[in-house]
Design brief:
By secondary structure, the protein is mostly helical. It has one domain: lambda repressor-like DNA-binding domains (434 Repressor (Amino-terminal Domain)). It has six helices and no strands. The protein has helices spanning 3-6, 14-26, 30-37, 41-48, 56-66, 70-96. The protein is elongated.
Length: 102
């Protein structure tokens, strides 16, 4: 896969995973999740709507409530952030940055 092909798709937003893979199948509302996590409901809403990133604190709380690991959530967020940056700046970076390898 070329660099252009790698940049041709929209990355999976972590909030979409939270909503589609956990909240909907488990029948859990955003408000109930927020209450269980002891965070403001706005935080969950913003994550689901792609307006807020999953922080380490949120990842730990999500993992405890849902039964995953913090690393799962942070990995989703990191992959999302990395792909968004590649999509937006990848070509520019490829053209500007010089390799130090022979």
């Amino acid at each position: 896969m070329t660099a252009v092909e790698q940049r041709s798709f929209e990355p999976l937003q972590p909030g979409e995973v939270l909503l589609e893979e956990y909240l909907k199948p488990l029948g859990i509302s955003q408000n109930r999740l927020a209450l269980s996590m002891r965070v403001p409901a706005q935080r969950i809403s913003e994550i689901i709507n792609g307006k807020r990133s999953i922080t380490a604190d949120t990842a730990i709380r999500l993992a405890k409530v849902i039964g995953t690991t913090p690393e799962f959530w942070l990995s989703l967020q990191m992959d999302y952030d990395l792909q968004k940056t590649k999509n937006k700046f990848g070509t520019q970076i490829d053209n500007e940055v010089l390799s130090i390898h022979a």
